[in-house]
Specification:
The protein is mainly α. It contains twelve helices and no strands. α3 runs parallel beside α7. The chain is elongated, with a radius of gyration of 23 Å. It starts with a helix and ends with a helix.
Length: about 280
């Protein structure tokens, strides 16, 4: 139908559905929120997810605080529990975020991603909804860890503003690992293989770091790696924010690492999603 024909009988052009950029963005946001709600409902209804994102970090706090804490000397205000808590938050954020890879691989195997792509929703909503739900879960996990930490003797030594910044930095670390995990899950696509691969790269990064012990106690050949890998750098900045200490060096290094990883893995994740 031509524009002239559409005007007949009404005196005005026919009005079709809105197609502007603002309308598309609004629909994309709504689709993202819908996918976020879906992911959160799954999380609440599957006890295993709750265990690994909340109960497991609590177990790590208690284990290191009361089993290993007496054997690991550190020179920080508040003793080993103050040294430990930023490390536990960093480790828990990394491990909890890798669930993104397993979930996406499972959805690919079961055909869920294909069903999503056949629906009239924004394609980006599958990934952005997943990342938003993971961010909310990470926030809850960090708050639970800090609550347990306070119960076993941890205290912020540097004020509330640095404390909030420390929590935000821990969540940012988790979101960055989510982006890596999204690419791994979309690229490998097999749930068991993804789970095994997560152990290969996450365990060295989290345990060969300053999360649980001071780097100076490690062999000399290992210290260079431990000092300069992203988990250690972010945890050291979190520790300085929580306990007081120099902030500038590890602050800009943390930003460079986190932004650099996002710049690399967001395009890779989008490309892998398009090829599913």
């Amino acid at each position: 139908m031509s524009a002239v024909t559409a005007m007949r009988g009404t005196g005005a052009p026919a009005q079709g559905p809105p197609t502007g950029l603002g309308h598309r963005l609004r629909l994309g946001v709504m689709d993202t929120l819908t996918m976020t709600r879906r992911e959160l409902l799954i999380w609440f209804r599957v006890p295993a997810y709750i265990f690994f994102t909340i109960i497991q970090p609590i177990m790590f706090v208690l284990l290191f605080r009361y089993v290993f804490g007496g054997a690991i000397p550190v020179k920080v205000p508040g003793g080993y529990v103050s040294y430990l808590m930023p490390g536990i938050i960093g480790q828990s954020a990394a491990f909890a975020s890798f669930g993104t890879a397993i979930a996406l691989a499972r959805q690919i195997q079961k055909g869920v991603i294909d069903r999503f792509r056949s629906m009239p929703i924004a394609r980006s909503a599958v990934l952005t909804g997943r990342l938003l739900s993971d961010s909310l879960r990470l926030t809850l996990t960090v708050l639970v860890i800090l609550g347990v930490g306070y119960a076993v003797g941890f205290r912020f030594q540097n004020g509330w503003v640095p404390a909030i910044l420390m929590m935000l930095l821990g969540i940012a670390l988790g979101v960055v690992v989510c982006c890596i995990s999204a690419y791994v899950g979309l690229a490998i696509r097999d749930e068991e293989s993804v789970g095994s691969f997560g152990l290969v790269w996450l365990f060295p990064l989290t345990f060969v770091s300053s999360a649980f012990v001071t780097i100076s106690t490690m062999p000399g050949w290992l210290q260079a790696f431990a000092k300069n890998q992203p988990i250690s750098i972010v945890i050291e900045e979190m520790r300085s924010l929580a306990l007081g200490g120099p902030l500038a060096l590890h602050a800009w290094q943390s930003v460079v690492w986190l932004v650099g990883i996002l710049v690399v893995f967001i395009p890779l994740s989008v490309r892998a999603y398009r090829r599913v």
